Amino acid sequence: MSVGTKRMPTLDTHANDNNPQQATVDAETLLGMHFEPLEYIIPNYVVEGLTVLGGKPKMGKSWWAYDAAIAVATGGKAMGTIPCQQGDVIYLALEDNLRRVADRIRTLTPLRKKLGLDLKRLKIRVDAPRIDNGLLTELDKWRESCVNPRLVIIDVYMKVRAPRKRGEDVYAADYAAVVPLQQYAAKNHIAIVLVTHTRKMEAEDPLESISGTNGVTGAADAVLVLSRNSTATVLYGRGRDIEEIETAMKFDAGRWMIIGDAAEVKQSYERRKILRILRESISPLAPKDIAEQSGLKPGNVRTLLGKMMKAGEITKPEPSLSLYCTPITPVTPITPSEV
């Protein structure tokens, strides 16, 4: 291209292309452009671009990632529920050795031979260069050898992170370290899942729990956090192209399975707790008493009691009093003819 020649965006420009020559465009031209729909690798959870997956050590992040890799490589179901379009996957198991990887895959695919599962589209590496020292070149080699490259899993981030320069701003360093992966994923329309750890200290916002500064999560397109609370293990997600999600999970035989929406599961758990307290009580209880015995917030207890009354799970012996108990099952008398 000669100096001074303008190059305008074409009508087939993709929404996530990171092309510096397309940095400025007028709004009318933008609205006339055609954007290919985003590819959802694991619908509602992982979309093309960079996703950071965080969790505490030994939380089961790798098991979740292996399950996702197998689901995509075989066109199966992630988390036992989510159908995935089949495609090529590369898993960089940088904290494992080949023996351990084989053991994990066997655990997750106990019926592989019986079901005829073909895992050739899942490639494994247990070593890889850093992001700043050849990783993207290696990913290019894999991508160009594939029929339909869809998913890259890097487990774990610290193994490929570029070292911070002396005196470099911490946030800027974290952001700059992750950006090449985000740009690579967007340019090539694939998903990269970057596995990392969360801090020891709890955070009100799950995204704040990711190890490092906000530079890591700021550069990512989406963030998933696997954490445990008093009622269940929860997979929380938020991103530019996914709806905010909070899914209750169950770990069974090496596989994370979806139980349901975390809020509904928590409420179900709290309702069962209230029912147990009322069944064990010899007299009706007030909301304050139920809150003290259950450890639940008084406001939550009052809300749940109202819902449980409507559902017929509990009752008030005296309608004018705020005292609750479980319904008394009437005893049907036995007639002489039934004796």
From TrEMBL:
SUPFAM superfamilies (UniProt xref): P-loop containing nucleoside triphosphate hydrolases (SSF52540), Winged helix' DNA-binding domain (SSF46785)
* CDD domains reported in the protein's UniProt record: HTH_ARSR
* Alphabetical list of Pfam families matching this protein: AAA_25
Gene3D superfamilies from the UniProt entry: P-loop containing nucleotide triphosphate hydrolases
Any one Gene Ontology biological process term? regulation of DNA-templated transcription
Region ranges (Disordered): 1-22
Q: What is this protein called?
A: RecA-family ATPase
Q: Taxonomy-wise, where does this protein's organism fall, top ranks first?
A: Bacteria, Pseudomonadati, Pseudomonadota, Alphaproteobacteria, Hyphomicrobiales
